[in-house]
Design goal:
The structure is a homodimer.
Chain A: H1 14-28, H2 38-45, H3 49-61, E1 65-68, E2 72-75, E3 87-93, H4 94-98, E4 103-113, H5 115-120, E5 127-136, E6 141-150, H6 168-176, E7 182-190, H7 194-200, E8 208-217, E9 220-229, E10 234-241
Antiparallel strand pairs in A: 1-2, 3-10, 4-5, 5-6, 6-9, 7-8, 8-9
Helix pairs in contact in A: 1-3, 2-3
The first copy, chain A, binds a DNA duplex through helix 3.
DNA sequence: TTAGATTTGTGCGTATGTATG
DNA sequence: ACATACATACGCACAAATCTA
C-alpha cells in the first residue's frame, strides 16, 4: 500500500501534501480499480477527516476525482493534457478592466432555416429564431454573438430590449418560461468571414476566438450560440493555486 | 442589515441557503463596498463558521467572491460577458478520446536570452532555460510547448526524461526542489509562424490557440510557458449545470 | 519599527444525515 | 435491517497574512 509520511512542519499544508501524494498515485494508475474511502485515508496517513476531505475536494476541483454519496470516490479517466485539465477560465477584457460601459447592438432577429445546423444538433426541425448581436464598448466591438433558438415563439421577443448587456437567459426565462439548467461551452480558433471582420473592425487575416455554447433545459436543447471574439480585446483567463 | 432566517429542516443544506442569500445580495450590489467577515456572517445567520466557509467556498468557485488571507473577502467585479465567467474548461482532444498514446518529443533545451520576455515578466535577468517540446500522438502533433524557466541550474535537467507526457512540475520538484503553488493561464488565438506551422503539420493560414501560463512558487515566477495548439485536434470544453 | 487586532487558512474532534448496496 | 460511504454541521485552537495604532 501507499504509506507516505506527511510533514506537518514543512510549510506546505497537510491537505496539499496529501493531495500531491494521491495525485501521483492516481497518475500511475494505482487507484484505477478502487479509490480508498475517507476513513481508510484517515487511518493510512494519520490525519483528520477534514484534511482528507480537503485534499479530495481539491483533486475533485482539478478533475482527478469524483465522489458519489453512498458509493465512494472514483478516479476520473485522465485527460491527455497535463494540468490544463480543469481550470476555471473566465472572460477578461479591456472593457471590464477599464470600467467602460458595455453595450450590445442588435444586428438582426428573425426566423432562419439551417438544415446543417439542425442535423449537427440532432433536431428534427430546421427552423431557428436567430438573434444576432454585436457586443463591445462604445469605442470598439469585441464580440459577435449569434444565438439560435429552436422552437420558440418569435413574438416572445417582440417587446424585449436586447441591447442590454445582460444575459439572454433572463430573456428566455421571462419571455418563454424556459429555465436553463445545464450546458456546455467549447472554445476554438478560426478565421473571420469578411462580414465578421468588418463588423468587428479587424482584418480578415486576424484570427478570432470562437465559443460554441449549447444550453439545455431538462435535457432538451434550448439554445445554440456561436460567439466570435477578438483576441486582442478579450481573452480567457484562469487563475489557479492553493 | 440582511437578516434572513435559514431553515435547517428544508432539505436544502444550510450552506446552500446561505450562499443563495449572499448571491442575491451580491447581484444587487449590496456588498460592493465591503463583504462581511466570516465571524460577522456567523453572528448574522446563526450558523457555524464551517457553514459560512462552505457557502463562501461555493461562491468563490462560481466566481462571485475572492478571499485574501489577512485582508478579507471581496466581491469580484462582474465580468462583462454573461455567464462565461467561471466555467471549468478542460482540454479535450482526439488523442484522449481515441485512447491513442500521447508522446512528447524534445525539440530543444538550453539557455536563451530574451530581454523583451524578461521585461514583460518583470524579471531583472534576461536569462532563461528553455524547454521546447512537441506533443501529440504518433500520427500527428497537436501542441508545441515552450517553457521558459528563469534562474535554474541547467544541469538539473541533464538526466531527466522530458519525452514523457507527464507534468513538467514533477521535474521541477525533483530537479530543483521548487514546488509550484499557484499560477494563471490565458487563452488566445493567433497565426502560427512558418516554423510552428511546419512542426505542427498545418498550413500557415490556419489559426492556432495559444495558452500562456505563468507558474509561481511563493509569489515568485518559476515558469512562463507558451503552448501553441491546433484547434482542429484539440479544444477547450466546459460543461456546466447539472 | 513594533505590538496588537483583525481576517482568512489550516487542522483537529465529534455527531448526525442521506444515499447506496 | 444493516453496514458502508460521502455530506452536512457543530465546536475549538492555532497559524499566517494584513492592517492599524
Amino acid at each position: 500500500m501507499i504509506h507516505r509520511q506527511l510533514d506537518a512542519g514543512s510549510g506546505i499544508p497537510l491537505w496539499a501534501q496529501l493531495a500531491e501524494v494521491l495525485r501521483e498515485e492516481i497518475e500511475v494508475g494505482h487507484f484505477d480499480e478502487r479509490f480508498p474511502s475517507e476513513p481508510e485515508l484517515v487511518e493510512l496517513f494519520k490525519v483528520s477527516r477534514s484534511t482528507v476531505r480537503e485534499a479530495i475536494r481539491y483533486l475533485r476541483s482539478e478533475g482527478y476525482l469524483e465522489a458519489r454519496q453512498g458509493k465512494g470516490t472514483f478516479v476520473v479517466a485522465s485527460e491527455s493534457f497535463d494540468s490544463l485539465r480543469s481550470h476555471r477560465f473566465s472572460l477578461a477584457g479591456r472593457i471590464a478592466e477599464s470600467g467602460l460601459e458595455e453595450v450590445a447592438r442588435l444586428l438582426w432577429k428573425g426566423l432562419v432555416y439551417d438544415a446543417d445546423l439542425a442535423k449537427s444538433l440532432e433536431l428534427s426541425s430546421d427552423e431557428f429564431f436567430l438573434i444576432e448581436r454585436l457586443r463591445g464598448s462604445r469605442q470598439e466591438s469585441f464580440a459577435l454573438e449569434r444565438a439560435y433558438l429552436p422552437r420558440v415563439n418569435p413574438a416572445s421577443f417582440d417587446c424585449v430590449d436586447l441591447t442590454k448587456a445582460g444575459s439572454l437567459y433572463s430573456v428566455l426565462q421571462s419571455g418563454t418560461g424556459i429555465t436553463v439548467t445545464a450546458g456546455s461551452d467549447e472554445v476554438s480558433a478560426a478565421m473571420p468571414s469578411e462580414r465578421e471582420a468588418s463588423l468587428l473592425g479587424i482584418a480578415e487575416k486576424d484570427p478570432v476566438l470562437v465559443v460554441e455554447r449549447r444550453a439545455y433545459s431538462r435535457h432538451e436543447l434550448v439554445e445554440f450560440r456561436r460567439t466570435t471574439l477578438v483576441p486582442a480585446r478579450v481573452r480567457f483567463r484562469a487563475e489557479w493555486g492553493r
